[in-house]
Structures are given as structure tokens and as C-alpha cells.
Design a protein that fits this description.
23 strands; 5 helices; alpha+beta
């Protein structure tokens, strides 16, 4: 009896002390604040506290099968624009959201982007080692979500560079491949013996050319097959305790019933502390995502519905200029 009681107390402590333990959030439909909306697009909001901290988030649900909706991306060559600028540039679409990660130095995206079936941005897949591993570079697969011509969503891990017409898609995350410096990439990943073995021996055994109509990259994956499964280590995204840092977040996923989910979480202000990756994953699972992934966050997180802001961006200057956005427009 004493042993059973001790187990029960330990179980309670895990629930109380776990940083991601919280009751499922309640969401309110706020369509009326963002009209006119297509019948297949809905907006939800919550400001319930999470882990006793102030919290604010929105998500949109859009029916992938609605042929009156177009899911696309837009970019700005070697420069950055605010989501509000993209809204005007792209004819005032229903939804505009930040998406891929990018370089402040070059103003270029560092993830896969596919527009109208053509790959317009490529992965930056080499992570420099530190300390003892300073002479190593690690080749990593980064995650991306794609929408096919049949309006079916899919999340994979990609390998893509400018020599390819289509990204290579992996169905599961892979361990990073350590490569000694100096490394001179050949014409194609598959031209190099090291990459040939890497691709040949990968766990998934399902590598294919990924022919999507629209795709955006980011990472890490947060939800797989309806359960929380974070591929942060495989994608080498956030080092150390970065998994548990609270920030503004943007994420995307889809349900088994064919609904696209786009989530934005406010943060870095007294009214909203943000969320860590585990909390973000839990929210996406609770919403009903079968698969979901993290996108660029922090000061970049921003989602407009009919040009109207949802969360308050964390940058002091307001909306951060970004080199790419995800768009949903009504045809």
C-alpha cells in the first residue's frame, strides 16, 4: 500500500512540475471579427493562461478540398517585406503569414519553398560543429509541408539544392551526417559517395522526388501520426535547452479530415509569454493535427486575416520584414 501511495505522489509531482503540463485550451470562434471570410475558413482565439502564465494564440482552419481556395507562397528577391506589404502586393488575400526561416545577412530563405510546382528556394542543410567538432559540418534533413495538386497535405524531411528540379523527400527524420572540412559539394547530392551511402542506408527506405504544388520549409516536426514527436535533434534546430524556451511561434499542420491548420502564438510581452516547442506540439495535437511542424517564430511570427493582425508581433517596430510568406486566397 505504501509503495502504491508513493507511486501516486510521484505521478502527481510529474504532472505539477512538468513544464508542458496544462489542461487543454478552450478556443473561441472569432470569424465575426475578420469578415468577409470564405465559408471553409474559420478563425479561433484563446487567451486562457497556460502554466499559470498569460497566453494568447490564434489559429485558422481552412478546407484543403475547397477549390475556391488557393494555397500559395510569395517571395521578395534579395529583400524583405512586411506581411502587410505582401497583403497589398498580392491582391489582399484572405490569409498572409510568415513561414520559412531566413538569413538576416542575405535576406534569403534557408528552407525549401515551392510555388506553382516549381522549387524557388533551397535548404541550407549544413550546420557547423562547435568545440571539438569545429572541423566538422553536419548535413541535416529539414522538414517541410507540401500541398499537392490533389489538395492533399504531407510533411516530410527534404534534401534540396539548386541543382535539383524537385526536392528529395524522406518519410522519417534521419541522424545528421558528419562531414570533415574542407568539403566541396559535387553537382548533385547523389554524385557524392558519402551521400549515396547516407541515402541508401536511411531508416525510412522511402526516398522520392517530392512533386508538390505548394510547399514551405521550417522545422522541427512536432506531430507525427497524430502523436507528439519532435525531430529537433535530427534537424539540429535548437541547441541545449532551446526546446523549453518560450517564444512567439508560428506552426502549420493538417488534420486527417483534410483541414489545414495555421497557428500563431503571441509572446515576449506581459500579456503573452509565448510557448516552448513541447507546448506548441501539445496545442497542435489538441486542435486535431495529424501532422504538424514549427515554422520561423520570434519576431517573425505574424498572421493577417483579411489584412487585420491577429497576434501582436514581438518586435518593437511592429511587423518584421520577411523574404517569404504563406498565402491563402479566394479565387
Amino acid at each position: 500500500m505504501k509503495k502504491t501511495f508513493t507511486k501516486f505522489i510521484n505521478y502527481l509531482l510529474v504532472i505539477i512540475l512538468c513544464p508542458s503540463a496544462y489542461a487543454q485550451l478552450r478556443w473561441t470562434n472569432v470569424d465575426s471579427l475578420y469578415q468577409p471570410l470564405p465559408k471553409s475558413v474559420h478563425v479561433f482565439f484563446t487567451d486562457e493562461k497556460m502554466d499559470s502564465a498569460n497566453f494568447r494564440a490564434y489559429y485558422i482552419e481552412a478546407d484543403l478540398k475547397d477549390k475556391n481556395l488557393e494555397f500559395s507562397v510569395d517571395t521578395s528577391l534579395n529583400r524583405r517585406l512586411t506581411p502587410a506589404s505582401y497583403f497589398e502586393k498580392d491582391g489582399r488575400p484572405v490569409i498572409v503569414s510568415n513561414c520559412s526561416f531566413f538569413s538576416f545577412k542575405t535576406n534569403r530563405n534557408v528552407n525549401v519553398l515551392v510555388k506553382d510546382g516549381k522549387m524557388i528556394s533551397f535548404d541550407t542543410q549544413f550546420v557547423h560543429g562547435k568545440g571539438r567538432d569545429s572541423l566538422l559540418r553536419y548535413f541535416t534533413l529539414r522538414s517541410a509541408i507540401g500541398i499537392s495538386k490533389k489538395r492533399e497535405a504531407n510533411i516530410v524531411w527534404t534534401a534540396a539544392d539548386s541543382s535539383m528540379k524537385f526536392p528529395f523527400a524522406f518519410e522519417s527524420p534521419e541522424e545528421p551526417l558528419a562531414i570533415k572540412e574542407p568539403f566541396f559539394r559535387k553537382k548533385n547530392y547523389l554524385d557524392d559517395p558519402g551521400f549515396k551511402n547516407y541515402f541508401k542506408n536511411n531508416k525510412s527506405k522511402k526516398i522520392r522526388k517530392w512533386k508538390m504544388e505548394t510547399a514551405i520549409g521550417g522545422g522541427p516536426v512536432l506531430v507525427q501520426n497524430g502523436g507528439i514527436s519532435i525531430s529537433n535533434n535530427e534537424e539540429m534546430m535548437f541547441a541545449g535547452m532551446g526546446l523549453y524556451d518560450k517564444h512567439p511561434r508560428t506552426a502549420i499542420g493538417y488534420t486527417q479530415s483534410g483541414k489545414l491548420i495555421l497557428l500563431v502564438i503571441e509572446g515576449r510581452n506581459p500579456h503573452a509569454k509565448g510557448a516552448d516547442l513541447e507546448q506548441e506540439a501539445k496545442i497542435l495535437k489538441d486542435i486535431g493535427c495529424w501532422e504538424a511542424m514549427n515554422l520561423d517564430g520570434g519576431g517573425s511570427s505574424c498572421m493577417l486575416v483579411n489584412g487585420k493582425q491577429t497576434i501582436k508581433p514581438s518586435d518593437i517596430s511592429g511587423q518584421r520584414a520577411v523574404p517569404a510568406v504563406f498565402i491563402i486566397r479566394q479565387r
